[in-house]
Amino acid sequence: MVWVRISKSDSLLFMFLFALPLRCLQATQESPHVYTREEVRSHSSPETRIWVTLGCEVFDVTEFVDLHPGGPSKLMLAAGGPLEPFWALYAVHNQPHVREMLAQYKIGELSPEDKVPSTLKTSDPYIDDPVRHPALKVNSQRPFNAEPPPELLTENYITPNPIFFTRNHLPVPNLDPETYRLHVVGPPGGQSLCLSLDDLYKFPKHEITVTLQCAGNRRSEMTQFKEVRGLEWNIGAISTARWAGARLCDVLAKAGHQLCETEAHVCFEGLDSDPTGTAYGASIPLARAMDPEAEVLLAYEMNGQPLPRDHGFPVRVVVPGVVGARHVKWLGKVSVEPEESYSHWQRRDYKGFSPSVDWDTVDFDSAPSIQELPVQSAITEPKDGETVQSGEVTIKGYAWSGGGRAVVRVDVSLDGGLTWHVAELDGEEQRPRKAWAWRLWQLQAPVPAGRKELNIVCKAVDDSYNVQPDTVAPIWNLRGVLSNAWHRVHVHVAP
Amino acid sequence: MVWVRISKSDSLLFMFLFALPLRCLQATQESPHVYTREEVRSHSSPETRIWVTLGCEVFDVTEFVDLHPGGPSKLMLAAGGPLEPFWALYAVHNQPHVREMLAQYKIGELSPEDKVPSTLKTSDPYIDDPVRHPALKVNSQRPFNAEPPPELLTENYITPNPIFFTRNHLPVPNLDPETYRLHVVGPPGGQSLCLSLDDLYKFPKHEITVTLQCAGNRRSEMTQFKEVRGLEWNIGAISTARWAGARLCDVLAKAGHQLCETEAHVCFEGLDSDPTGTAYGASIPLARAMDPEAEVLLAYEMNGQPLPRDHGFPVRVVVPGVVGARHVKWLGKVSVEPEESYSHWQRRDYKGFSPSVDWDTVDFDSAPSIQELPVQSAITEPKDGETVQSGEVTIKGYAWSGGGRAVVRVDVSLDGGLTWHVAELDGEEQRPRKAWAWRLWQLQAPVPAGRKELNIVCKAVDDSYNVQPDTVAPIWNLRGVLSNAWHRVHVHVAP
């Protein structure tokens, strides 16, 4: 049972891949055209025609793209590759009439050697990384860092596990849930805990919807102003899941820890490590960790399934309202210390600086580690450079704020910020002071007659009435974090 | 003992005023020039010459203004009037050599009928309002609303009581501390409390430094963009004091209230009321009120003295990190309700809206009442339009954020926001998550050679890395609240 050791959400994808040869045996025995995966991959645009595969069958869907009920852009995400990973996300496809419709476009089959993915054997430390969803936009393969495309990002309030943005700093460990242990260091004179997964399951199970965002989300907009060091995240380094696990405060209390008057920090260590054995690490203030209302979790479930390997299987920290970097994955050790974690990522990264600070003058000790994030929003539809119809335009996006602060309003402008419309907020009702999850929003607005282009802008307001800054230059910083200026999209209007 | 019923800080001022005739009896019996207060008042600029009074003596300090150790602008605040209220703020003046220096400038004495202030008798409901400090910049006399001038605002980390900004909605009640009672409504089936001041003193005394800010602070900058309804506050509707009193959570617990799972609100009613008997009122969420870490106070002391009448004598609410409007003064009643206060000021005022909303379209129910305020900062020195010396310029100001979020950085620009300097933060060290008080800041920066003017800008960052918006137009709202765009000051450089 190999897939017991990987998460169930990965297993969905695996089942599709391994199921291919089986289906092919049942296919018709006429002599179809045979194509390699390489040939299919080269047909991914209207110019080259648009091919996709389902099982061992190959389809030319060029004529169907504009008829796709979910919109052409969503189908184009699969152009040149398999449909299964996308159909797995959107159950609406699993109906006979969809298969019949697709059958009309069949042009052949995959060659026998292409029916199962080839396996590679190298000394690459990343060789054991899990298979990923092809829709993810990859910013770095080793370590793996990828985000969902804007078209899919706000398609669901809860982000499906396979396309949840992934931020890895190191190779993904392959941990055995049977032998996994979490070490919780006890207080001085107290006793440490060594918890198996079963031990962790015995704590009260707590389930909450939490949005995670990378500090580098929207970094690519900062880079446009001036070079920074960091991965080129677009607007998708943010996703939302329903997380379940034990509350950190319950586990710390069991180990004998109490809230103390002096400042203290809960340090987390991951089981992912670099070739020198240095593990990923981070910390949060003890006051947050011990506050039941802050709902910090040691999570073992993500959207009702065991954590996917990319998201920390079998246990990760979830710190609602706080930057992703503190949600340590593959959690190995928890301890309470008088100082913040000495990890590179706590002390020499994930901090904000003035635009005047460069790599020659930066003093990392002068800035606090990022914990709660500022108010944020972005436009996921339409896309920059797109042509929209005249008459009415539909604009969609997300908005979120750190620290449990609810988004109370999203303003949208079609004229670069001169005049504003108030967008409609969708998504779950949030509890006061515990608005851990984003709001999706949309606006239908008339396109002013005669306009040939629109400068669409969005900005959100949270319940402390914090707002986003107008422009990116004054918040530029050398690491390109905390990029939350108004999001701007320029589109053309069809004549 | 009339002054027992007013606060001790007012009494300082009263003592100066009533002490005048006594001092005059001791003055020399030569025949000095005699001037009326009206004549003195007309000498308040270099053109008319600058006169001030101390006791019954009149001085022409025109030649001294530029020699004033505290700077000419501070002495000019007293031009045409008495020195006592200013000397009361700055103890450094109470030295023999200061009086000797002043004596050189004596030109005469006040006329006998001007030695004590005249009393007025009218049916004005504000007739019983207390005497105020002359340094306050008055935005409205009835009700009284006034702010300290920028020169004094950041002179002290703790704002002296007589110049603490005052925001009254109604006439100031004149309450007898002997008969004062605070009514605390008990839970259903429980018992209500009726607390005297002595009863309140029996709760553990809790003392904290808290900055209060009016939602309308810096409204005048919004007005410059487009008209709003509201008082024309400059940058001084913010002040800091050391408050002491009983914790609200202790008083609510004594009345039998507990934190409940359902949403609830603590409603406050003031003893100030309009001619129809409607009292000022406001509410805060029960979760904040019951959280000992939120440190909500029923305060009876301000900077070590009983509350001044203008600031709620004998008891006011202090809600750290929250907009001034919820810090109900002259507190008469506390109750726990399933809904927010039905007061006008909770439901039909003190809310933020999109710039697109006007008085024809506004729906007050669509926005949350302002509670925590967003990050804020302003420049108190130099003043707009001032001429600064070439070489080096000193810039001073304040920065604060709501919700206990600490200010972690203030960026200052001399070129309208193109390049930035990091200011030095002064003031008390703040506790994590309890940064209730402002930081004062300053920057000494070289004036770039050849520059004839400077566009000085400041912006602050709090520990959730929230920042201020660049410009005021996109946050403009019909009531002119939440004005926290970059503060801008334009100065000339002396050749």
What's the SSE blueprint?
2 copies of one chain form a homodimer.
Chain A: H1 8-26, E1 34-35, H2 37-41, E2 44-45, E3 49-54, E4 57-60, H3 72-76, H4 84-89, H5 96-103, E5 106-110, E6 137-140, E7 145-147, H6 150-153, E8 166-167, E9 182-184, E10 193-195, H7 197-201, E11 205-213, H8 219-225, E12 238-247, H9 248-254, E13 265-273, E14 279-285, H10 286-290, E15 297-302, E16 305-306, E17 316-318, E18 331-337, H11 344-347, E19 376-381, E20 387-388, E21 392-400, E22 407-413, E23 421-422, E24 424-425, E25 439-446, E26 453-462, E27 487-493
Parallel strand pairs in A: 1-5, 9-18, 20-27
Antiparallel strand pairs in A: 2-3, 3-4, 4-5, 6-7, 7-8, 9-10, 11-12, 12-15, 13-14, 13-18, 15-16, 15-17, 19-21, 21-25, 22-23, 22-26, 24-25, 26-27
GO molecular function (chains A, B): heme binding; molybdenum ion binding; molybdopterin cofactor binding; sulfite oxidase activity
Pfam family, one (chains A, B): Mo-co_dimer
GO biological process, one term (chains A, B): sulfur compound metabolic process
